[in-house]
Write a structure and sequence with these properties.
By secondary structure, the protein is of the alpha+beta class. The protein has eleven helices and eight strands.
């Protein structure tokens, strides 16, 4: 430190020496520049009162210095420490995310979009369910599909033949000289046909024999009824099961050892004698997902045999109607 020229070499007064030392210390201390600039004076003459740092200012500056030092230490320590310091400085990421998501802010446009998506999903579900219902035909082989189409063509042809026959009968009645005799013959023929359908007269003709074996007793009455309905749809004209004539009002009940047809108990094996066109009856039972496959899934056996002549001789008593009467004169 340089010597002060104003300070005497050997001051005799100790008070003067102490003042010189205090003045020397105050001049050697660094002066900090304030960024705010000179503060306005409180007095009218422009004199500024001396400002002394208070306890609050010293604490704030101390905290700033500590925060700066901790940030410098965190940067020197690594990214983990720096992230910890930054996390302590503000709210965490989870809290900010939760504050952004809850409570939900739903607008009218969002509600409309949600409704449209719901309707679209419902439509897709209905479409998938309707498509799965036809999965049996989708997975069928080409030969099976051709056989089903042939069966439908045969049904259409039978209806056309029936229509032509009825038109022929009408023309014969209109052109016959003896209309009474012709009407009597057609009435007898119609009675015979209705007797076959009602089961009151015996019948014979080409057809098939369906034998259903049930060694495990798993065959239910609805399975036999499905076979009857499938045969009727294929053009069966007369059906007999184990000596019981099956007609339009027949019913099946029970299962296993207690199977009954119209109240008559029948036991396995169940033998179906069916009169009709064999080329239509046999494919109707063997279609994918049809009667034969359903019975085989239940560990039962189903055998179909064609025959040029099937005799259906089981009869049902004719029932006279109590209230219905013929309206023809």
């Amino acid at each position: 430190m340089s010597e002060n020229p104003e300070m005497p070499e050997n001051p005799e007064n100790p008070e003067k020496r102490e003042k010189f030392e205090k003045r020397e210390v105050s001049e050697s201390a660094p002066r900090s520049e304030s960024p705010r600039g000179p503060e306005p004076s409180d007095s009218e003459d422009g004199r500024t009162p001396p400002s002394s740092p208070g306890p609050q200012g010293s604490e704030t500056s101390g905290q700033g210095e500590e925060t700066g030092e901790s940030a410098e230490k965190a940067e020197a320590a690594g990214p983990s420490a720096a992230s910890a310091v930054s996390a302590g400085a503000g709210p965490s990421g989870r809290r900010r995310l939760a504050a952004a998501l809850w409570p939900p802010r739903v607008t009218r446009a969002q509600l409309i979009v949600a409704l449209l998506l719901f309707v679209l999903g419902l439509g897709l579900a209905i479409q998938v369910s309707s498509t799965s219902e036809n999965s049996a035909l989708r997975g069928a082989r080409q030969e099976d599909l051709v056989r089903i189409l042939d069966e439908l063509d045969d049904r259409t042809q039978r209806l056309e033949d029936e229509k032509a026959r009825l038109e022929k009968q009408r023309s014969e009645l209109e052109s016959s000289s003896d209309q009474a005799e012709e009407a009597r013959k057609q009435t007898q023929e119609k009675e015979r046909q209705l007797g076959i359908l009602a089961g009151t007269v015996a019948a014979e003709g080409p057809g098939i024999t369906l034998t259903v074996g049930d060694p495990s007793g798993a065959v239910e009455s609805d399975m036999l009824l499905d076979a009857i309905q499938e045969l009727r749809a294929a053009g069966a004209e007369a059906i007999q099961v184990n000596g019981v004539r099956v007609v339009a009002d027949s019913y099946f009940t029970g299962s296993g050892d207690d199977m009954r047809i119209d109240g008559t108990k029948v036991a396995a094996p169940y033998v179906f004698k069916v009169i009709g066109k064999p080329e239509d009856l046999e494919p109707a039972l063997n279609i994918p997902g049809g009667v034969v496959q359903t019975l085989e899934k239940e560990q039962a056996t189903a055998t179909v045999e064609r025959a040029p002549k099937i005799v259906v001789d089981a009869l049902r008593p004719a029932k006279r109607p109590d209230y219905a009467q013929s309206s023809s004169q």
